[in-house]
């Protein structure tokens, strides 16, 4: 059982990053997410007087899912609507008269199964700690299976697109060769008639 728990702990959806944000620049973190997936995040920014950092979470179409201004420390949540790439951007703003200093930003994000709390389930169903852990691992394994199924579906779609592209390139190559052969034949016949008209050849 302990080995099984160690194996499943490798598939946790917790992401923690720390980086330095230069003055008057922005840095974005992107990730692909499944539809209807809850995302929770917790951030902390080093405080430097006069400097401001904002954050915004959005999709590829520019729809804002969550945002905050003048942040120092806090949390955010949002729900992904469709399968696509979502990004969380941190934007530094420094007044023109002030010399900017790099600020340290730490971010911890959880998505999917890792956002669930099982304390309520444990109290409602009167489950033992081991049963709660097994329930969590069951949900985690289901999520991993769905991820693999989605990856397989995308791989099939990409393979179909690749095969269609290859067939189109083949037909275009054959068409180009036919055009070149036709043009070369027409050029030979035209030059032959021209030289005959000039009586350069018989």
TrEMBL record:
<comment type="similarity">
    <text>Belongs to the EMP24/GP25L family.</text>
</comment>
<dbReference type="InterPro" id="IPR009038">
    <property type="entry name" value="GOLD_dom"/>
</dbReference>
<dbReference type="GO" id="GO:0016020">
    <property type="term" value="C:membrane"/>
</dbReference>
<feature type="domain" description="GOLD">
    <location>
        <begin position="26"/>
        <end position="136"/>
    </location>
</feature>
<feature type="transmembrane region" description="Helical">
    <location>
        <begin position="169"/>
        <end position="191"/>
    </location>
</feature>
<keyword id="KW-0732">Signal</keyword>
<feature type="signal peptide">
    <location>
        <begin position="1"/>
        <end position="16"/>
    </location>
</feature>
<keyword id="KW-0217">Developmental protein</keyword>
<keyword id="KW-1133">Transmembrane helix</keyword>
<keyword id="KW-0812">Transmembrane</keyword>
<dbReference type="Pfam" id="PF01105">
    <property type="entry name" value="EMP24_GP25L"/>
</dbReference>
<dbReference type="InterPro" id="IPR015720">
    <property type="entry name" value="Emp24-like"/>
</dbReference>
<keyword id="KW-0472">Membrane</keyword>
<protein>
    <submittedName>
        <fullName>(Mediterranean fruit fly) hypothetical protein</fullName>
    </submittedName>
</protein>
